[in-house]
Amino acid sequence: MSKTNMTRRGVLKTGAVAGAGVALPTIFTASSAAAYMNEPTGGSVTLGFNVPQTGPYADEGADELRAYELAVEHLNGGGDGGMMNTFSSKALKGNGILGKKVEYVSGDTQTKSDAARASAKSMIEKDGAIMITGGSSSGVAIAVQGLCQEAGVIFMAGLTHSNDTTGKDKKANGFRHFFNAYMSGAALAPVLAARYGKDRKAYHLTADYTWGWTQEESIKAATEALGWTTVNTVKTPLSQTDFSSYITPVLQTDADVLILNHYGGNMVNSLTNAVQFGLREKQVNGKNFEIVVPLFSRLMARGAGENIKGILGSTNWHWSLQDEGSKAFVKSFGTKYGFPPSQAAHTVYCQTLLYADAAERAGTFNPCGIGEALEGFEFDGLGNGKTLYRADDHQCFKDVLVVKGKENPTSEFDILEVVEVTPVEQVTYAPDHPMFAGGNLGTCNPG
Amino acid sequence: MDAIFLQILNGLDKGSAYALIALGLTLIFGTLGVVNFAHGALFMLGSFCAVTLNKILNLSVETIDPTKTDFLGNPLKVKTPYVQAWFGDDFGAAIIDWGVPLAILFTIPVMIGIGFIMERGLIKHFYKRPHADQILVTFGLAIVLQELIKYFFGANPIPTPAPDAFKGSFDFGAMLGMDPNVIIYPYWRLIYFGFAAVIIGAVFAFLQFTTFGMVVRAGMADRETVGLLGINIDKRFTIMFGIAAAVAGLAGVMYGPINSPNYHMGMDFLVLSFVVVVVGGMGSLPGAVLAGFLLGILESFASMTQVIDLIPGINQIIIYVVAIIILLTRPRGLMGRKGVMED
Fold first, then answer.
1. Of A246-250, A323-327, B42-46, B189-193, where does mean pLDDT reach its minimum?
2. B167 phi and psi, to 5 degrees?
3. Domain spans of chain B?
4. How far is B163 from A197, CA to CA, in rounded Å?
5. Cα angle A163, A55, B323; round to 5
6. pLDDT tens across B81-128, in order?
């Protein structure tokens, strides 16, 4: 007669282990049934839009979401088709992606890395999102990109400008259409030298986080290469609201240019404070004192009111561009929502179309197939001229706009004017450039 | 020397906002015994009173200009504010230009009303509850208020400029016969400091020299005895809550031209203001004012390049370091009553 060694305690232990195994999220475990993470099986495919819906960048997030909804409408054959009509690739037919209707879920990043990762994880795990896209901060983009790499889905970055996103923190599953801090520096510096001269002394105020550091490094290197000297670089806390105690020391130096490596609310406040302290009326070294904002956001710049007038900066795209792609997008977006789109809206719309197009060309939703289709992909008609998605780092290379705060705006949207379209050759750098060193794409992860 | 002078001015300017908010906080704590975490939101609401008035003054009649087009190529809609249509271009433009000072008149009754509703509608139910409950409910209220503002006004900062007459800077250097454009300070920030001094002076005078103020001070010292004398101290304390809300609101409305208002600005000031109250001494009005200016000046000096070079990161922690030192060595704060927070 056989005797079993089953005890009450043993049953409980076994049950607990089995229960934990069943309850284990499938996000980090490849499914044996599916060829890749969240392979669509029905008649639809789900995209995950992860944007700031609360917090300081909620307005940018709302504009991103509008653009995503427009892109989904166009992909499914609705509306006027927008930039699908001007896109050089003709793989998209307006019947969804690979014949599957495009659906979407949205999450709130709150512009916090942990919240953004949690919402991305939920969209992948619970909603079956096959791709995650969005965001309005480099810290968030880098965090979510890392998560998508681990989970085995593609990440199409939204508004992220730090060199690190496609530099030391680049990932095989991550792709960035937006430009970066190096490109801003490379585009701006020659314009600054031409307008303000090569004998200038710059004082930097820099937001103390990843984007600020790379922005300062980039614009400093670019201006110094043209003959400028750097008087001082001062890091300011991200939570700073009143910059008076950082502006007044500028008055005590012989600096004749103030470079504000600030974005969003920081930029609005530091620029407003700098103008209040009369820096724009100041004469130093026999020259007019100048202020430069390397990265402009039209949505945020509105908060600085008249202080923005005449200030030079750079931007990824502007609604006033007259190429066919930009005109089609502005018409489509403006007709639907009643106002022109922001650069954040433009970049996420492009990212959605680029993802869908890559899936069509690859004939699969497998992240590795889509990655291959995007790597080295050259395209046109999406508002930035000829563009390359470089294989080495998954960064888009395209023309960069140097803009200036408009002196006589005709409407609340008419804040910036394009001063120069810097050709892509001028902002291209080697994949092993020191500012982007230290990272490794690794291999694509299909989940 | 120039740098030190400028940082003192910066400190006084920052201190003005801290002192005004902390003054209101202390008034509420001293009278009602409530730790009001929604006080920063009242500062923010004051700022948005200016934004609201600005929007009202800019309500416009739309006409079509067929000679121009908008971004979609349609005929351009030209907006002319009603005040300009009614009062003429110049006078109408002047009214809009003076929107922030005019907002002071608008803010006082609005904020007293908000304070009254807050106190009667919510906070009075928490008088006898533990401080932790009060903090939770007022913090929740602050979040509700800021989300409401974000819903109606958006998340981005909204410019509320000072009148043209107060743009630019005062040149202290030129006045003292030194190089021009070295020791300069913006007119509006100087006005803010002066305004704060007047408001603080008015609150102290009101408490010190009026019968109402005397009763309130008596109530702050011994609420029970004042009640036994047949005085309705609760009613007076409710009025004081309204006054505290108005002080925070006025601090906010005048702050608009310094930094464009946004829904989160109250939270930015809230923690600092609590530190100011604790350093000054819980319940001490002069302590709140003194600590406000003191911490403002310390924060400004800690932001100087030479200081940061010496002690990296000091600019981010100086206020909290001071708070820790004060709490360790003198728990009742600089001017707090003996026994308060010392048990």
1. A246-250
2. -80, 160
3. 2-54+110-329
4. 34
5. 95
6. 999 989 988 999 999 999 999 999 999 999 999 999 999 999 888 888
Eight-state DSSP code of residue A376? T
pLDDT of residue A94: 94
Nearest to A306 among B72, B158, B161 (CB): B161
Kindly state whether residues A170 and A68 are assigned to the same domain. yes
Q: What percent of chain A has pLDDT over 90?
A: 74
In chain B, alpha helices (H): 2-32, 39-57, 82-87, 89-97, 99-121, 131-153, 172-175, 187-209, 211-221, 223-228, 233-255, 265-280, 285-302, 305-310, 314-329
Best probe of the A interface among B156, B304, B319, by most A CBs < 10 A, is: B156
Contact check, Cβ <8 Å, A242/B258: yes
Domain count for chain A: 2
pLDDT attached to residue B232 = 87
| Domain limits for position A331 | 44-179+319-394
Distance of residue A241 Cα from the nearest chain B Cα, in angstroms: 8
Residue A13 lies in a domain: no
Chain A nearest-CA distance from B35, in A, is 24
Give yes or no for a contact between B252 and B42, defined as CB atoms under 8 angstroms apart: yes
Kindly report the number of other CB atoms within 10 A of residue B60's CB atom. 15
Residue B195 and residue B249 in contact, taking contact as beta carbons nearer than 8 Å: no
Nearest CA in chain A to B166: A276
For chains A and B, CB pairs below 8 A equal 126
Closest chain B residue to A337, measured at CA:
B72
Report chain B's C-alpha Rg in angstroms.
22
Q: Does residue A324 contact residue A291 with C-beta atoms inside 8 Å?
A: no
Q: What is the pLDDT of residue B5?
A: 86
CATH number where A188 lies:
3.40.50.2300
Q: Which residues of A touch B155 (CB under 8 A)?
A: 55-59
Domain covering B2-54+110-329: architecture: Orthogonal Bundle (1.10)
d(CA B326, CA B339): 15
Q: Please give the pLDDT value at position A230.
A: 96
Query: Does A338 share its domain with A302?
Result: no
Subunit contact B157:A249, Cβ cutoff 8 A: no
HSE, CB side, 13 Å, CA atoms: give it for residue B161: 20
Q: Alpha helices of A133-177 — where are they, by DSSP H? A: 138-151
On whether the CB atoms of residues B273 and B21 are closer than 8 A, the answer is yes
Q: How far from A269 is each of A186, A351, A358, B255, CA to CA, in Å?
A: 25, 31, 41, 12
Residue A106 maps to a domain: yes
**Residues A387 and A344 grouped into a single domain:** yes
A265 at interface of B, judged by CB pairs closer than 8 A: yes
Note the pLDDT tens digit of each residue in A19-71: 554 444 444 444 445 789 999 989 999 999 999 988 778 888 999 999 999 99
- Per-residue pLDDT tens over the stretch A386-402: 999 999 999 999 999 99
Rg (CA), chain A: 24
How many whole angstroms separate alpha carbon A411 and alpha carbon A340?
A: 11
Please state, as a whole number, how many other Cβ atoms lie within 10 Å of the Cβ of residue B162.
Answer: 24
Residues A166 and A57 in one domain: yes
Rounded to 10 deg, the angle between the A138-151 and A210-225 helix axes is 120
